[in-house]
Predict the structure of Triosephosphate isomerase.
Amino acid sequence: MATRTPLMAGNWKMNLNHLEAIAHVQKLAFALTDKDYEAVEVAVLPPFTDLRSVQTLVDGDKLRIKYGAQDVSAHDSGAYTGEVSGPLLAKLNCTFITIGHSERRQYHGEDEPVVNAKVKAALKHGLTPIMCVGEELSVREAGNHVSHTLAQVDGGLEGVAAESVAGLVIAYEPVWAIGTGKVCGEEDAQEVCGAIRQRIEELYDDATAQQVRIQYGGSVKSGNVAKIMAQPDIDGALVGGASLDAEEFVKIIRFRDQ
Ligand SMILES: O=C(CO)COP(=O)(O)O
């Protein structure tokens, strides 16, 4: 079985201006040690307007924190007002891009074809997609959470080659657990994350399924992260609100100590 390095990523959403971003990344850098970076990969996903400042700080101090964006255009360049392309993000040395976050699906009408085009755009420019999937409360209550989430996986990865899938990240974020304080029970999270890995094996092969990293996201905090991370098919956390507090995010990164 492949050993997968856990990925602890902070999705800042629409929070922290570029000055706050610098201060926040400095706090993380000050607290984190080589031991932390050996145990987990750490990433922050700030708003677009912060990326240049974060890049300058990371490069200047040779920090081991990775960073990325919260969205990418499906297009490479041209007349797409307001969009930010893969080449522009690659030029800033971004590593990760969240794609198809439920807030993009909910407020910007992103569906599987859009997510699929953005996954391909990110991969084309050497950026690692964190493809977000997960069900709304009504879907879970109807007992359709697994099939719903797997349909998002199928649609998002259509036409993506096995070698690309092996390197990407899928984040299972049940919509009802995002920003609500209602964390999904670790066994419920494992049920869906295990089903996602199984689906990758069916769509590709066992080696690809063993390599792809699957994160859980939704009200992750230092108090619940250890139980979530103990699940066999959960390889990291995509953390929203709690990642805005540097001390708390460091505790989450050190989930083994909690
Ligand atoms: O949406 C999320 C991360 O992408 C989760 O947000 P919260 O951790 O604030 O629930």
Q: What stands out?
A: The pocket of 1,3-dihydroxyacetonephosphate is lined by residues 11, 101, 173, 178-179, 217-220, 238-242 (CB under 6 Å). The two ends are 26 Å apart (CA to CA). The CA atoms of residues 184 and 213 lie 19 Å apart. The chain has 13 helices and eight strands.
